[in-house]
Amino acid sequence: MASRIKKGDKVIVVAGAHKGTVGAVERVFPETDKLVIEGVNRVKRHTKPTPQRPEGGIVEKDMPIHRSNVMLWDPKTEKGTRVRSQLNQDGKKVRVSVKSGTVLDG
Fold first, then answer.
1. Closest CA to 65 of 2, 8, 23
2. Cα–Cα distance for residue pair 86/30, rounded to 1 Å
3. If the chain, 106 residues long, is cut into consecutive pieces of 10 residues, what is the mean pLDDT of each piece?
């Protein structure tokens, strides 16, 4: 299923341990319907020393969460919103907030 969330979008987490957290999407995995959000689902990984990282140690990184657990952030209402597609005056398809009607694409 096509995701309406893209890299760089601001989203709010609506389910899970990080519910209510707002962050920017860093990476999207369309084949598994998951995304990585800045500061959400952060885990610690213990790494061995390697030639690229000779010190090794504990590394914190953000892990992916399912796209069904997030909603796009509407800057006008400052809440999560569903999205619909519309054609603008130039005939280009844009994403529009269902709650406020705000165009979410630049």
1. 23
2. 22
3. 82 94 95 94 93 89 94 92 90 90 81
Residues 6+ apart with CB under 8 A from 65: 13, 16, 18, 34, 35, 36, 37, 40, 41
Tokens coding 2: 């096509």
Phi and psi, residue 33, nearest 5°: 60, 40
Question: What pLDDT is attached to residue 25?
Answer: 96
What is residue 2's predicted lDDT score, i.e. its pLDDT? Answer: 60
Asked if 23 and 79 count as a contact pair (C-beta separation under 8 A), the reply is no
pTM: 0.82
Q: How many CB atoms lie within 10 A of CB 71?
A: 18
